[in-house]
Amino acid sequence: MSIKKQFIKTKPVCKVTFSVEAKDAIEASVIGDFNNWNVAEGALSKLKNGTFKGVFDLKKDAAYEFKYVIDGVFVNEPEADSFKFNEFAGNENGVLVV
User: Fold this and answer.
1) How far is CA 26 from CA 58, 61, 84, in A?
2) Is 15 exposed, middle or buried (0-12, 13-18, 19+ CB in 10 A)?
3) Mean pLDDT of all residues in the chain?
4) What is the spatial distance between Cα 63 and Cα 49, in angstroms, rounded to a whole number?
5) How far is 33 from 65, CA to CA, in rounded Å?
């Protein structure tokens, strides 16, 4: 799993690339504050090598809670900027700072 951030100088956004290795998975998504925790909006594309990948434009100067959903299972990104306990989920979410 990995996260790459590309800051755009001319726009108040950061292009964030989420990558998840899940060769045996059928589908994967990234859900969080930036897409209202919507699985369909966070759908990642599966590459030939079994990695799921997606690029999202996120507003800069913000922090977002997020998780991956891999075949219906919620998974945290170990390379998240930090982690925050979420009372609604009863679990920790990853935090992305852009």
Assistant:
1) 26, 34, 28
2) middle
3) 95
4) 31
5) 6
Buried b (16+ CB within 10 A) or exposed e, 34-53: bbebeeeebbbebeeeebbb
Angle made by CA atoms 49, 51, 56, in degrees to the nearest 5: 135
pLDDT in tens, 9-31: 999 999 999 999 999 999 999 99
Domain edges within the chain: 2-97
> Which one-letter amino acid corresponds to residue 17?
T
pTM check: above 0.90: yes
2-97 maps to CATH 2.60.40.10: yes
